[in-house]
(2E,6E)-farnesyl diphosphate synthase (Ideonella azotifigens), 590 residues
Amino acid sequence: MTNEDLDRWVREELRSIEQALDRLVPADAPVGLGQAMRYAVLDGGKRLRPLLVRAACDASLGHAEAATRAAVAVELIHAYSLVHDDMPCMDDDALRRGKPTVHVQYGEAQAMLAGDAMQALAFEVLTPEDGSVSPELQARLVGLLARAAGHAGMAGGQAIDLASVGKPLSETVLRDMHRRKTGALLQASVLMGAACGTISAPAWQALSEYGAAIGLAFQVMDDILDVTQVSEVLGKTAGKDMDANKPTYVSVLGLDSALAYARALHEQALKALERSGLPAKHLGWLADLVVDREH
Amino acid sequence: MTNEDLDRWVREELRSIEQALDRLVPADAPVGLGQAMRYAVLDGGKRLRPLLVRAACDASLGHAEAATRAAVAVELIHAYSLVHDDMPCMDDDALRRGKPTVHVQYGEAQAMLAGDAMQALAFEVLTPEDGSVSPELQARLVGLLARAAGHAGMAGGQAIDLASVGKPLSETVLRDMHRRKTGALLQASVLMGAACGTISAPAWQALSEYGAAIGLAFQVMDDILDVTQVSEVLGKTAGKDMDANKPTYVSVLGLDSALAYARALHEQALKALERSGLPAKHLGWLADLVVDREH
């Protein structure tokens, strides 16, 4: 592997993901809803989840059109959760991906509706009526995504987050919160990609462990970047979690231990990939990106 | 048909629907999220959509367990839309089904999350991992529900609603709004029930027309009841749409013409049922209920 190979792969994948988002997120939804949805999801974001879907699909020699739809669906779920999270009744944030947040741009009511419609669209995207994805795979992808997005996953993690502001949390509770809040969707991205191909049960299990490890590593790095970077680099308000008195890996473990923990999780992820026995080069690169990123 | 048969059928169906909701909506979601979700969907509501699913499944001699899951899923979508609709940034309503609305009871952030988690749960319920519903049917039901809930259906209708407050609307735009906002999900309820069985393309088309007619009839009656009933009977704030200067069928057509329109739609629905050639007695009863109801 060279940096050049990685850069080329990411660039090509991102182009293809952006095209798919542009194609599948409708501009013609009634009176401003389509614009708000597109504003929320196009031209922004690291696209880590779509990249994970595509990389896992590559590793399992999977169905590319299905993986593209899965990539769009998982990004729609992620993007809708940011729209709702940023609203005044939640985190009340005005800046996201370097732009005004959706409710600042379009009003709160339209932001809530756009988020709701984006969640529905994710499941619509996974169930094309043109025969391009088999019904078995459609059902599998919907099941994985719905479970990762709902009460046992992302929404459940957000509920723990909501209840934990200003409270001292143990590392165990903090980990449970993040496993659900961000980890579940990142892990689902890997598994949805893998579901597009055919892999053995042990390889599936190994990818699941890879997904869990990088899911947690991503959050630990997020907490580290929140205190070490400025808003301009992050594209969102820096120091926000500390200011809001939210428990983070840095506040619970300290900065040095948090960094060491991120490195250990990265190592775990790479070992799981090795164990999978799959040609999982792209997933390895993404594990590196998760811990080496600056925003 | 006697009233007694109808009453017995509705009573038995409602018992079975409530049991399924109780079983499938989790109490153990993290820190209050499960309670908020159950508060939003249990012990309340007319359950018209679940009844339509079950009745259409009866008419198509369909798969009962699949129809039960479809009924729960469609009610979850309906209930989540009410939770979000009632929030301060939308309709700002404090009373629903005779109880304080979810955000009044649990706070705005939890209400938004509960709504989000309910939408995800709907798609989780449609994709059981126990083999009780075939993957083909799972994919079909998800596709129907996602399209009815999203930008082209319910969420799109709400966006039109949002943009139309205080503006004079033609009957055409009003109808388009309601076809999406309430009609799409009512029609999808019928089609999801029908999808659980095996019916001919013409019968499917006839049920689709039945669903569209009662969907619109339901909204026309809603507008009529909003001005003719008091809050105690409705279980929600009466006169609300008029006060909010929202266009309704009564404000656009006048009360007498609105009533005549509801009756004409009822007639259309019954004719479509006849054309379907299906044993659709229960769907006929539900069409009667839609226009004869008092709340």
